[in-house]
Design brief:
With about 100 residues, the protein is mainly α. The chain has a domain of about 70 residues. It is built from three helices and no strands. α2 runs antiparallel to α3. It is elongated, with a radius of gyration of 28 Å. The N and C termini lie far apart (about 60 Å).
Length: about 100
Amino acid sequence: MTDGPDPVRMKALEEKLAAKKKAMEPEVVEEHHLSQAQAGWRMVTELVVGLLLGFGFGYGLDLFFETLPIFLIIFTMLGFAGGVRAMMRTANEIAAKQAEEAKK
């Protein structure tokens, strides 16, 4: 009768299992760059969302305070400014990534 499992066979089995697990893992695909179309759509979306949020908040405040259209105009302009700021941040981020890739 044996005292326990054979350590050599256990190690071989563990290595085989690790190899099988590694072979079954899906490949991780990382995209390191945005296409120009994706970047453009992202910036357009940021601008439109900023405008819509500003319009929505302004219209809501105008309805609440019954002061149509003062808050609508103010918050639409603020939303536009926020959208442009988000677009510029995205453009800087993309430019920095492209500069980093150019160094490699």
